[in-house]
Amino acid sequence: MNVRRLLVFLGLAISAGALYWALRGIAWNELGSALAGVPLWTPFGAVTLYLLSFLPRAYRNRIMLRKEADARLTPERTGEAQVMGFAANNVLPLRLGEVVRVLVLHRSTGVPRSTALASLLAERILDGLFVVLVLGTTVTWSMHQGHIAGTPTISTLLKVGSALFMIAIVCLVALAYAGRWVMRSLGRILPDRVHGPMDRMLDALAFFRDGRRAVGTVVLTAMVWLCEGAVFALVVGQFGVDDPFRVGYFMLAVVNLGILLPSAPGYIGVFQACGMLAFEALHLSREQGLAASVVIHACQFIPITVIGLLLASRHGWDIAKMAHTKIETAP
């Protein structure tokens, strides 16, 4: 069994185990009642808020790549690449949507693949830092309100997530400021063929050295997670939960840290288990947690997958082509 197949099997196994844990001991009549009580307008509101989060995503990507900008690097094209990438992640294993996004952006705007890949990595690390910040804030908020959220699993997520993403952001900033010196120092050791890609990857981190671009990137990242958190808060509020903003943003953080684990396409199983874990940590109903996670996941999964696959078809891509994408080492 090759490594790729092993990783696919691992993701499917983790999703299956998470789904088994989520469904074990569920009171199905309570789950059905909870889902039946959701107003019809709620999914429409949640979908609208989720789609709005792609506007700051598109503008953030353009700001980060502004040094590479030409007439083709527009928010519309960066947004299309992101939507297609998210759709591919929903239907393909191994997070292949990230590769699809890089290649779509390269072909539609001319941004070098290595530069697009480095900017995507920087985005993911910034996103992770904000999610950890949301988790820490909501845990503190819950404890202050007398709700115990400090379960061992949540505490581990907070500690490990904080450590990993802080180390990652420090490394990125260090590369942004000292990367050229490192490249000059290692130039005689590294093969000539890696010099070009390394230079382009360092170019993608230049926004850290530009105060306005760095601030703009941080502000837009905050807007992304405010929009996504609003989706969770809106849906959670329909299940009679007190303080839906606290619970919704806490659930957002737990779910988004949890889906960093390998899983089936679309994070099926892991998404639901993490949503229930968030509710259990706040001593709320498992059935409500499962119902909320099912509604939220559907509101995120269905529209972006449909829109992304339609965009892919317009650009001459299909699922088979996405499944066989890879990033070559050339520009």
Give structural notes.
The protein is mostly helical and 331 residues long. The chain has helices spanning 3-23, 28-36, 41-52, 54-64, 75-91, 96-109, 113-144, 152-186, 192-203, 211-236, 244-258, 270-281, 286-314, 319-323. It starts with a helix and ends in an 8-residue tail after the last helix. α2 (28-36) packs across α13 (286-314) and α3 packs antiparallel against α10. Helix content is 76%, strand content 0%. The protein is built from 14 helices and no strands. The protein has one domain.
Record keyword descriptors for this entry.
single chain; 331 residues; mainly alpha; 14 helices; 76% helix; globular
The dominant shape is globular
Structural class: mainly alpha
What is the count of β-strands?
Answer: 0
Largest sheet: none
Low-confidence segments, given as residue ranges, are none
Helix fraction bin: over 70%
Average the pLDDT over all residues and give the rounded result: 88
From the alpha-carbon coordinates, what is the Rg to the nearest angstrom?
21 Å
Tally of helical segments: 14
